[in-house]
Structures are given as structure tokens and as C-alpha cells.
Amino acid sequence: MQDSATTPDPRRWKALIFIALAQLMVVLDATIVNIALPSAQDDLGISDGNRQWVITAYALAFGGLLLFGGRVSDLWGRKRAFVVGLIGFAAASALGGAAVNTGMLLGARALQGAFGALLAPAALSLLAVLFTEAKERAKAFGIFGAIAGAGGGVGLILGGLFTEYLNWRWTFFVNIPFAVVAALGAIAVIHEPAGSRNPSKLDIPGVILATLGLVSLVYGFTRAESDGWTAGMTLGLFVASAVLLFAFLVVEKKVKAPLLPLRVLTDRNRGGVYISLGLAAIAMFGLFLFLTYYLQVVRGYSPVKTGLAFLPMIVTMIAGSTQIGARLMTRVPARWLMGPGFLTAAVGMLLLTQISLDSSYTFVVLPGLLLMGLGMGTAFMPAMSLATHGVQARDAGVASAMVNTSQQVGGAIGTALLNTIAASATTAYATSHAAGASNPKLLQLNSMVHGYSTAIWWAVGILAVSSFIAVVFVNAGQGGPSASGKGAAEGADEGIEKAVPVMAH
Prior knowledge:
Layout: H1 3-6, H2 12-44, H3 48-51, H4 53-76, H5 78-97, H6 102-130, H7 134-165, H8 170-173, H9 175-189, H10 204-227, H11 232-254, H12 262-266, H13 268-298, H14 303-309, H15 311-328, H16 335-352, H17 361-386, H18 396-433, H19 440-473
Helix pairs in contact: 2-4, 2-6, 2-7, 2-9, 4-5, 4-6, 4-10, 4-18, 5-6, 5-9, 6-18, 7-14, 7-15, 7-17, 10-11, 10-18, 13-17, 13-18, 13-19, 15-17, 16-17, 16-19, 18-19
């Protein structure tokens, strides 16, 4: 352990409050706008074609710039990056809330994504360097992980309340007090350990290639959803992404101070975590989308009631994270929490494949959500803590950003892939049942439910694969990430080796 880590910061628990507050703001922002979108579209006259860009502009900037943001926080110092990210996010939110046309709103969303990409890795790597004792670290990550997982659901509830009782603009303005309190708190109580910065120069070619490659990948899946998988633009974006990301890996191998040191990627444990969390994000993002539509469009729930319907999942996610994941993390190898956790979530999704026009919330939707939350909370906790296992302190920011990136890209893929599957299944059902249908509206609703159910079946399969990868690839020693770390590539800096990724929606 490094000298800087031998004496824990006495104000670290106060620091956790402000770091967690910033995390909650970033995570809930991804879903709070979803519920407000129909109102904003009417108010600003946004076309149906441009509507998706309110979500996509944020995802593109956030996912595309995360690696850059992670490395900047390693270079500048996490505290400075954290505070700048908060102030920028608040300013972008004020701009979004005051938007008078489509362009202004989309620009504000892109700025939110960009500052979020600076803020998120800084927050996560601050945890990595502030909490150095195994049991304390497990507790801190449990709290942080619960907020990361629950933030999306909180966003749905707040989005419903603001849209129904106030105005869609409040889904932006609500970020300002969060950011101001977190920034003032950070300035007052956060002290970064000495010697944890990475003083090397910024890898500009790496930044350009990684950002363009990731943006092409995310945008490619967005175009696949609207234009189809075989459209020229879609295929062109995927090819461009593959070429750019391959070039990025070649550059990273040769430059002296790489944006993403390849040692961060090649460790077996981290590889298993990145892939399994990315796959889980595909399934999770899809589920939030389909269940929101199912409850509002098919079942006729109000925005507030829809948000509240997700509340039980938030409760079990917090329980899984703090009571199971965090408590067992130092006693049980990570894969025996991750594998069964993802499998439990898959069983929850399996129940949700049974939805119909008149399914009981209590007997079908609720048990599915409870199992989903419990499984995901349990699995995310050790996975998040293992994400930068064995990484030196100066790489903590970029290693955290890598997990964020896998989840953001996973989320973009999940939304596009599962949406396309659902749309195809809906069309096929409507076509095959059109002849005997006496009620067109009923046929339309049945077709939609069939589409959602089909897509959720795919999500079940994806979660099962995620569970398999966690069990097979993750091989950290007894005690999971707090043990000696058999699978770690770089055993140095054992005490400053963990960070928690965002579950940003």
C-alpha cells in the first residue's frame, strides 16, 4: 500500500455524502427526462424525427467522452475535475430548462453529457483513493452502488411528479441545487491523497480516435433502430467504429502515455467484469424502456404511478447492494455473487415475459421487479468494486471510466437492439392476426405486448450469458476483491485499487 493511503482521510465519510449526491444527479438525469419528453416535445414543437435526439445527444456525449474524462481527472486531480464537472453540469441543466427551441435543448443535453463524462469518473476514482481499508471500502461502495443502481428509478418517479404537477422544465432545473450543494461540499471536505495524480501528458491521438470510435458505435445503433440494420448509413457507422477503435488500440500500444493503458484491459478479472456489466446494461436499459411503455400505454398508468411502480425494484436493489453484496464481498469470491446475482435478475425477467393486456401488477410485474432489483444489486456490488482491481492509483480514473463506457455502450446497444426486436415482433404479430381481428385497437395493444414480451425473452438470454461470463472469467481469490487478488495483473497499490462504475441510464 502506498504511504499516502496508510492514514485514511478523517473526512472521507463526509466526502462520500457529496460524491454520492453528485452520482445520484448524473444517474437520475438519464431517466428523469424520458418521462418529461412528450411534454417537452409538445411545448417546443420538436418533430418525431428529432425527438430521440433529446436522449441520444446525452448518450453520445457521455459515452463518447468518458475515457477522455477519466484521463483528465487523473491528470488534473479528481477534486478539481469533480468540481468543474458539477458546475458545468449545473450550467448545462439551466440552459436545458430555459430552452426555447429544439436546437437549444439538444445543445444543453450534449453539454450535460460532456460534463457528466468528466464528473462521473472523477467521483468514482475519488472513492478509490479515499477508502483504503477493505471493510470500510465495501461499506462505502455498498452505499454508492445502491445510489448508482437506484438513481434511474428515482429519476422515473421525480420525472413523473414534475411533469404531472409542475412543468417538464423542472426535470432540468432540479439538477442545479444538487450540483451546488455537492460542489460546495466537495470544496470544503474532499482532500485528495498526495501522489495519486498521473503527471504524464494527454494522449491527443488516443482521445480523438476513442471519442470518434465510441460516438460512431453508439450512433450506429441509434441509426439501426430508425433506419434498419442493413441501411448504408448504419453499416458505414459500424465499419467506421471498428476501424477507429482498432486504430486506437494500435496507438495505445505505441505511445508513451496512453489514454487507456492496455494493462487496464487485459487482466482476466477486469475483462470479465467489463463484458458481464456491459451485457447486463443491455438487458436493464431495455427493460426500463419496455415496462415504462407497457405501464403507461397499455395499462394506462399516469407518469407518477408508473414511476412508483418501479419503487419496489429500487428497494430490493438497495437491499441487494448494501445487505448482501457489501456484506459478503470480503468473504465470498466475486464470481459467486455476480453469477447468481445476474441469474436471479434473469429469473425476474422471465416472470416479466408473461405480461398481457390484463396482467396483475401484484402477481406478475411486482415479483419480476423484486427479483430483478435483488439480483442486480447483489451482482453490481462486487463487480463494481473489482472493476479496477490491481490498477495503480494514477490509473484509477481511466479504469473507472472504462467500466462506465462499457455500460453506456451496452445501454445504447440494448435500447436499439431490443427496440428493433420488439418492433419486428409487433409488426409480425399484427400482420398474422389482422384477418380475424374485429377490434383494431385491441389488436394494436396485443401486438405491442407481444413485441415487449419477445424483447424481454432476449434480455433473459443476455442476462444468462452475463452470469456465465462472470462465473467463468472472474477468478479473484477468496474474499473477492479485498483478497490478494490472484487475477490482478498489477499487484501494486493494493489499497487504492477500486472504483465503482456508474449505472447511468
